[in-house]
Amino acid sequence: MGCVKSSNANNRRAVRIRRPRPWNHTEPITRAQLNAMRDEFWDTAPHYGGRREIWDALRAAAEAELRFAQAIIDSAGIIVQHPDLTLCYDERGARYELPLYVLSEPRNLIRNPN
Fold it and tell me: What is the pLDDT of residues 92-112, one digit of tens each?
């Protein structure tokens, strides 16, 4: 019987990331309100567990163009459970959940508030 070398990196299925499906906020929201929600999430997310560098990579990926986001995710060793990045894991098994509002804009975004 021979030995077979395996590792998590070799067994991991590469998942191509994509933008989340369109979504609606509970009420129309301005860009400033959306940005405030995002800032609050990113400021508090590391306090709920996981590693700071993974949270930073997830933020960079969420704010980048799709092709750059894929490179960021791959280079950080993030395991993508859902292709829209709403659920990811790091190599140690820590769970990272991202709400839709940090990944894309809502359908009911107020573009020109007066």
Answer: 999 999 999 999 999 999 987
